[in-house]
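Reviewer comment 2.1 asked that we show a complete input and output for one of the modelled complexes. We chose the CU-O-CU linkage case, as it is the one discussed in the main text.
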Amino acid sequence: KQQGQDYDYEVIAQKGNTEFFDGVSTDTYGYNGDLLGPTLKIEEGESVDVKITNNLDEPTTFHWHGLEVRGEIDGGPHGGIQPGDSQIVTLEADQPAATLWYHPHIDGSTAEQVFKGLSGMLLIDEKPSSASQLPTEYGVDDIPLIFQDRLFDDNKQLNYNKLMNDDGTLGTVSIINGTIHPKLTVTKPVMRFRLLNGANARNYTFRLSNGDRFTQIASDGGLLDEPVETKSLTLAASERAEILIDFSKLTDEESLSLINDEGIELLPFDVALDDSPASSPEMWTADEPFLTAQEKARPVSKDIELFGMMDMVTINGKKFDPNRIDLRQEQGVTEVWEVYNKPDMMGGMIHPFHIHGTQFKIISRDGKEPEPNEQGLKDSVLVNPGEKVKLLVTFPEEGIFMFHCHILEHEDNGMMGQIEVF
Ligand code: C2O
Ligand code: CU
Ligand code: CU
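Response of the prediction step:
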């Protein structure tokens, strides 16, 4: 806290202008600036007071995606802040270190507000005393990367059209941390990247251009049970992953970039290593199974059925109604949710299912154990058409929380329900 100030951070949703293309600017939204927002940090076990202000011409909310807070300050559609209004919220990090994020959640305009630029990262930092030797120097060897895709019109103006993109806006231009064609200079042999799929709808599959492996160390809610060596990694909208890339073995002439599964370059690295020792941090192995036999055997107590496309999306046959409580669950009591993505005549589509106020564990996908990179805490899970995914869900705090599809246009179309935790 600065002297004379009764909060640690101030986050202002405001209008701005961004020059995505040289010499042409377009209207955008940002937090404290023209586009996106500052990275907020809370140390594991600590709390911060955040002053949130809405300087837009329309109502908005501030949702802390992945943070286990009371329903009251979760920034769901009930938490609307009118233009000109402010509020102070206390965010407590009573959960493991993780890469979380924040964005608006206003009923009917979430997709458009995010599209225009409202998103930021919210990091829970490891305690300084923690034994992890993971890279932690923010902006040096610990880099946040927000992946999004956008549509522009012929005049290079951001072009949001909900009716044309009712199944989720798929942009033709990729932006990373708000920049088209970014490039990153790498100075440390081992780099930690925090990847956030901040797109309205698109799935991203990441690979390295030389086909090499990298190491996934964390999922949405913190470190994985065990690090996973992999050649590719898919994130659905709103999912996060932390990865380590070892640059020390590259020869001088070799170039490296992060590419997508179509081979399109997302982020080229400009490697100019300083003389830091090229030793990889020590990795960990789980000493207990990810799920106990008891957890695996727990019976299903909540059924969720995702269905439909475009404006016809529903959960359990219903559309969102702010005045209806769909489910109830007792605070601190663990239940098993079975999420079924019911196919339609066309086959159906992927829905990334997200629950507020909790970090859950995936028990199974169609009866099979989750992949190693899903053996960690999660708040969003990609559910393929026809698939049934079982989740182990506990809410540590009370209040009303949303659960929904994180294709933002589906959410705005009512593919959302609410649970009261009592
Ligand atoms: Cu990213 Cu309802 O949230
Ligand atoms: Cu959320
Ligand atoms: Cu959906």
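The chain has three helices and 30 strands. We note this here for comparison with the apo prediction described in Section 3.2.
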